[in-house]
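Sat 14:20. Reprocessing the chain from the morning session after the first attempt stalled halfway. Input below, unchanged.
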Amino acid sequence: IHFTRQTMGQVISLPFKLASTTLTFYRGFFHYLLGAGRNSPYLPPSDAASTVPSYLRPPTNATDTTTISSSSWTVNSFTQTPLFYQHARMHLYSLASAFYLYNKPHYRKDSFKEDIVDNFANVAIPGTGIPLSLFVWNRPLAFGFVCAASPVVSAIAALHLWVKTRGKSSISEEYAIRLLAPDDWFSYWRLNCRIAGMHALLNDIPAGYEMENKWTFLEEGAKRGVPISPYLDTPAIVVKHRNEEGGLGIYFYKNATDGGDWIIQERIQNGEWVNKHLPSNAPLSTFRVITQSRGAIDVTKECKVEDVTALSCVFRAGRKNAQTDHDSILFDVDVKTGKVLGGTTNAHWYRLGLHECLPGRCPWRSSDHAVTHHPDGDIPVTGSVVPDIREMLHLVETSHQKMCPDVPLVGWDVVLSADEKLPVCLLEVNLSCNFFRGSFDRKVYLDFLEDMAVKMQAMRLVADREGKKFK
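Finished this time. C-alpha cells:
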C-alpha cells in the first residue's frame, strides 16, 4: 500500500514539476534576452549586487556530489546541486546571446547566422532526419524553434530515458537537465560556439582566431616552434590518371606556399600504439584535446602557460575503410592517467532524410560509453594507456599559449605518428569546438565560462552605451 501511495504521489506531482521547470526555462531565457540579465552586469550569485533571479540560484544548503562531466541523470539529485544551477545560467545566458549575435559579424563568416546555417546543414535531432539549418534561416524562425522545440524535445528525451532504463531514471529530473543544463555533445558544442562568437565580436576578433585557417595555423606554428604536420614546400603539383588520355584525368594544384588554395602534404601514418587499436585500412586517427585559456578573459593582459588548462581528451578510433576519423568510435581518455575509458559515438546526429523517422531506423541515444572494443575486428581498446599523456597535454597547453592565448577554447587534433622524427604533431585547431563526448572537470569549465560572462557582459554594455558598430 505504501508503494502504491508513493507511486501515485509521484504520478500526480509530475505535471507540476514539469510545468515548474518549463516556467524556469522561459523566465531565465527572457531574463537574459530582454530583462535585467541583458541590461545589467553579469555577476555570479555570490556577489551582493548580482541580478541572478532566485530560480537560477541553488538552495542554500546545496553541495556538489561530483564535478566530472558524465550523464547527469546518474548523479543523485543533480538538479539540486550548485553545478546544475551554474550550468543552467551559462546555458540560458549564452542561448539568449545567440539572438544578439545573429546578424552581427562572425570571426569566420560574414555573420553568426551564416555560421550556424552552414554548421547545421548536416546535423539533425536524432530520429527526425531534418537538418537543423532549416530552422535558423531567420531570427523569428530560430526564436520560435527555441521556444517551442526545447521543451518538447526535452520531454521526449526524459520519457525515452525512463523507458530505456525501465523506470530507474526520474522523468522530472531528466527533463530539467535536458531543458536547463543539457550535457549532450551537441549542447556543449553550441555553448562553446556561442561563447567564441560573443568573445570574438566584443574583442574585435583577436589575432588568435586566424588560426582556424588551416594554412595560417601551419605557417604560424612553424614560426613559433610548434610541431605542426609537415607540408611540401613546392609551388604546385600535377596529378594524372595513369590511363586516361587526350587531356583528361589531369589536375593542377597550386600550393598555399605559393599563394594557392591547397595545402599539399604527404599522408601521415598512424603510430604503433594507434595502429594496434585499429582495423586494417583505417584512416589517420587523432586525439581531440580541448584546452581553455584564462588569458582570453582579458586579452590586454599577458597570458602565461599556467593560464591554459587541458580539459579533455578523446581518442577518435577511425572505422575500417573510412577516409577520415570523422567516422570513428569516440573513446574517452582520463587526462590524469592516460587510461582509455569507454567508447561511444555521435553519428546518429548526422543521419539525414525523412526515412530516418521510421521506427527502429535511427537511435535516439547512443551507448553511454559502453563500447570497450573497436567494432571492426573486435579489437580491445578500453583499458589501454595512451603513452606519455602528460607530454601530449603539455604540448597543447603550450601551443595554445604560443599561438592563440586570446581564444577561450581550442580543440586540437593531435597525431601520434609513425614518423620517428616527428612522433607527435598537431594537424589543426577548431575554435568553436566540441568535446566529442569526452569527460572533463565541469566545475573548472563552468567557473571559466562564468568569469568569461562577467567580462563579456561588461564589454557588451559599454558597446551598447557607445552605439558601437561591429565590422
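The longest strand covers residues 308-318.
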